[in-house]
Amino acid sequence: MKKIFITAIFAIGSLSAFAQEEVTVIETTEATEATEVVATQDDFSEVSSEELPEAVTAAVSKNYPTASIDKAYTNEANQFKLEVSLEDGTAGTLYADENGNWIEM
Question: Where is the signal peptide (predicted)?
Fold first, then answer.
């Protein structure tokens, strides 16, 4: 009976160990412009698709021709996190360096 109780405690504890990604929004206002910075727990900040290097967009087009980039993020190491969706409705997250090489995270 004691083993069952301990096993149940570990099972419940392991489920709570997978916390959701925390998103913090910081707004900075200057005299003429307002800037919104989105910082996530994994240190990626959102950027527009136009700010992506040509090598990254070319890698997406080459390896996933039916994909569209929905959101893009970057970190201090010039790595990019891309949320993409395919024409068939599937979606996923890709990671690439600034040279368009895929990274496994």
Answer: 1-19
